[in-house]
Structures are given as C-alpha cells and as structure tokens.
DNA sequence: TGACAATATGCAGAGAATGGAATATACTGA
DNA sequence: TCAGTATATTCCATTCTCTGCATATTGTCA
C-alpha cells in the first residue's frame, strides 16, 4: 500500500530527477526570462538540436515545461515559476546563498541565424 | 573550459541527483525533527539496515548530512537546514502548495527494540 | 579476550539514463 | 505538390544507478 506520504516523496523524487542534469538546469535558466524557441536554446547552450530536444522532452514529461507551436517554431515555457525557487534554493545550499542566481546567460540578441543574421563573430 | 555558470549548474544537478530518490527524501523527512540513529531510520522506514546505510552514504557523499558516533550508535543530521526549503518547494510545485509539508512520519516512540522495547503492535 | 550488537562496505545482476546518429514529422512558401 | 526548414522521435552502445546479499568494521559488555 502506498501512503500519501509515499506518493509525495515519489513525486518530489521524480521532480528532482528531472532537474538532476546540468543541461536541463541550463535550459530552465534560459527560460527564466520568458518563453524561448528551440533554436535559441540551441544557439545559447551550444548543443545540438536533437540533444536539446531530448532534454526538453524529459522536462516536458516531468510537466516542468510546456510547448506552444507557432508556425515553424516551438516555444517552450516553464509551467510553474515556483521551479525557480527550487533552483535558487539549490544554489543557496551549495554556494552559501551568494551563488549568482543565474547571471543572464542570454545574450542581447540571440546569435541564431534566424534572429540575428547580422554578425557572425568568427574569432 | 568550465564557466562559473557551468559549475553552478553541475553542483545544483549533483544536489538534485542526491535528492532524486523517495527513500532518501523519506530519510531527510525523518531527520527534519533532529538527529536520529540508524536504528530509528530502519524502524521508521521499514527498510533493511544495509539499504538504509547505503542511502545514508549517498546523502553523506553529497554533503547533505553528517554523522556523529556515540558509542555503538551513529547519529545522522542534516548539514544545511535550507535543504528543507528545497523539499517543501518541490512538494509545493507538485501538490500546489497544500501538499502536507511532511506530516510527521515519526511515531511517538521509536518502535525499534532499543528505544521502545515496550509494545510491539502486531495487527 | 570473546561473543554480540550496530553500522558500513564490496560485489553483482538488472534496469535506467546518457548522448550520438539517423530518421520522422510538421509547417511554410513557391 | 514539392522542396526546405524547424523540431521530435527512435535506435543503440555505453555508462551509471539501484538494490539485495554477504561480509567487514567498530564498539560494548561480560
């Protein structure tokens, strides 16, 4: 028999499991600023599309994020902003509270070819 | 090269990983009330000693708990009480904040033979 | 010192996660 | 309808994790 307690713990564990991955945390940090399309994540995190998509699928399965299609693009956004309390708390436990609560990884303009076809820095 | 950001994410991920297990969460919930010896955890959680000990080792490796030996017993206690903010936040995300923030699993008297050799309820 | 109790550790099989590659799907514009 | 772009899914080998069992370690008491 599964008590309410058990269920709570299992749910919490499942949530932690979904968060137990640096790339997924990085994705959530990017989404902190609002919804983003996959191409942004790809560009910002410097990972392959298929890989990003896989990690997004994990977060989606854990109901941490949802997607919204708009034409050719998929936009992802966090379902419960409370999730950021979790991320910040985790950093606080580790770094003693002064661990930068996510310096904006995001650049002024996304360097992906769609959004910023302006300048490709090649250094 | 590993940026500060990367390191923060890796640390947070490691913390989440340690928490991503229902039994380990249950252990932390028991420790919420203060330090406990292994025999208590064994009795309260209804798991075998070796199993509990292994999960404790995981939590210890993640520097979430520390132990203190006192004669024949080892007492475990949580290093950063902030960890409970994490657990509560996780439950809040899941259950919508009304998920009982850990109803005391602990019984009035620990049923382990050492502490309460008084009455073994047998229903 | 020897028997015993409490706890920790090592090992192994089963199962799950990771990450890379290929491929499928969905939408747009010509 | 066809080509092209954006994203998702599937497959797979490798690696990690879980968990039960046996055993080692450490402390206590007679």
Radius of gyration of chain A: 16 Å
Largest sheet of chain A: 3 strands, antiparallel
CATH architecture of the domain at 13-94 in chain A: Orthogonal Bundle
Q: How many DSSP-defined strands of chain A?
A: 3
Q: What is the spatial order of strands in the main beta sheet of chain A?
A: 1-3-2
Order of helices and strands of chain A: HHEHHEEH
Mean pLDDT of chain A: 81
Largest interface: A-B, 40 and 40 residues
CATH fold-level name of the domain at 13-94 in chain A? Arc Repressor Mutant, subunit A
Percent of residues in β-strands of chain A: 5-15%
**Spans of at least 5 consecutive residues with low confidence of chain A:** 102-108, 117-123
Please report the number of helical segments of chain A. 5
Terminal-residue CA separation of chain A: 61 Å
CATH class of the domain at 13-94 in chain A equals Mainly Alpha
Alpha-beta content class of chain A: mainly alpha
According to CATH, the homologous superfamily of the domain at 13-94 in chain A is Winged helix-like DNA-binding domain superfamily/Winged helix DNA-binding domain
Assign an overall shape of chain A. Answer: globular
Helix fraction bin of chain A: 40-55%
Oligomer: homodimer
